[in-house]
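Work Package 3 (structural annotation) set out to generate three-dimensional models for the target panel prioritized at the project kickoff. During this period the team completed the workflow that converts sequence records into discrete structure tokens, so that structures can be stored uniformly alongside our sequence database. As a representative example, we reproduce one entry of 336 residues exactly as it appears in the project archive.
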Amino acid sequence: MHEAVLWEPAGEGRVRCALCAHRCLIAPDGRGVCGVRENRGGTLYSLVYGRLVSQALDPIEKKPLFHFLPGSLALSVATVGCNLRCDFCQNHAISQYPREHRGGIPGEPIAPEEVVRGAKGAGAPTIAYTYTEPTVFFETCRDVGVRAREQGIRNAFVTNGYMTGEALDDARGWLDAANVDLKAFSDDFYRRYCGGSLQPVLDAIKRMTELGLWVEVTTLVIPGRNDSDEELGWIAQFLAGISPDLPWHVSRFVPSYLVHDVPPTPVATLRRAREIGREVGLRFVYLGNVPGEGEDTACPSCGKTVIRREGFRVVENQLADGRCPGCGEVVAGVWS
């Protein structure tokens, strides 16, 4: 048991959680929407503190983060739980575990210091909080993250962005980067398919950039749900309004979890999304889940390929101090 952060008493034994955008009002002995934060005796506890269900070394490109220490490794960690209920979730076996197993909380207990030692021993310059939603195991992320920073190791969230400003302000001292899953630009999409709403995600992306985090955004393009030119254009315009240097990953959907009546995304749709992004001024639009296409980084000034990738592997990186070797243009990112 570990007391949660960002909550307050709400009277009659209830508590109000301020960690994610649901801001759950939790009755005695109840849990929040995430299924991993419980009110016991008027105190909110995290049930997943240090209880990792996944720990693996990944290329940072798998997150995907293409402009953050490319070619390096990230120690990826996760607990069970999520604050959304996406019917197309690709990691549902762990993200939805408490809901689908009568509140069960599996996981091997591990101390924050052990996680940091693991990253350091593996030569991983980053710890990524990923696979499920890091917001719901925020206390673990913070305790690991603070210690990681002390050892010169950076921290990255792979997140749905459904968090509060208070949570982001709390993380500003130890979080370095995030890939945010912007699932659509429709509140109806979020309510029907994810059990959430759009605006908190937009607010989180803006706030992250204001705090100086390196931010990239991924949109899983699902045929018939969020693949119209109009909606893709709305997403691209929103991101370009924050920064034309904000990388956008448009990824191919494949049937999973509860969605098997929708075909995989045509590659032509992703190419169209890339063109839409470029038309509104985005400098870096990548295709995801399409090996061998749309993975390279080009100089936004002269067009020279400065990072060449094959899948999640960097096969050539010509950047010198973040500059294009052809024209000297500074390419936005965290390179060293």
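Residues 296-336 form one domain.
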